[in-house]
Amino acid sequence: MEKNPYLTIMIQSLKKKSAVLDAVIELNIRQKEELENPGLDPDDFDACVEEKAKQIEQLELLDTGFQEVYDKIKADLQTNQQEYREEIAEMQEYIRRLTDKSATIQAQEARNKDLMTQKFASVRKQVKEVRKSQKVVNQYYKSMMKSGYMEPQFTDNKK
Q1: Residue spans of beta strands (DSSP E) within the chain
Q2: Which of 29, 90, 121, 141 is in the most buried spot, having the most CB atoms within 10 Å?
Q3: List of residues 6+ apart from 48 with CB closer than 8 A
Q4: Residue ranges in the chain whose pLDDT is less than 70
Q5: Which residues touch 10 (CB under 8 Å, ≥6 apart)?
Q6: Do residues 1 and 82 lie in contact, with contact meaning Cβ atoms separated by under 8 Å?
Q7: Per residue in 25-58, pLDDT tens?
Q8: What is the DSSP string of 104-149?
Q9: Are 28 and 115 contacting, i.e. CB atoms less than 8 angstroms apart?
Q10: pTM for this predicted structure
């Protein structure tokens, strides 16, 4: 019996998913570095988040495609399990690696979330201080404008 070509497609899909997860891990590392940087450039951070969103979208497409192919050949895999033993073992190994990478990503995401919460708290504090400073400056300016006004003291009565 000839090997099922869908198995090759599924293995390729798992390889692509592994590469995409690697890219997400790298983006998480970059995101962490940016969040730890006190001079964070919001545009760079946004670009990183957008790139990560694209990678996640790619992951969803790969997952959907993998599931569709698996649904097509599920019965064949179950009935001819011995024949596809090597391919199944290879896919299982990829799935184990993908699971490890997913766990790594979840841990990175949790750390980045904490860093982001700290960063936003810091930014809020800075905004509050700026507003407070502006308020003090405005009050000072208003009080100086009122105290600086004097009625004319000398008038010219000549005709």
Answers
A1: none
A2: 90
A3: 27, 30, 31, 34
A4: 1-2, 146-156, 159
A5: 66, 69, 70, 91
A6: no
A7: 999 999 999 888 888 788 888 898 999 999 999 9
A8: HHHHHHHHHHHHHHHHHHHHHHHHHHHHHHHHHHHHHHHHHHHHT-
A9: no
A10: 0.74
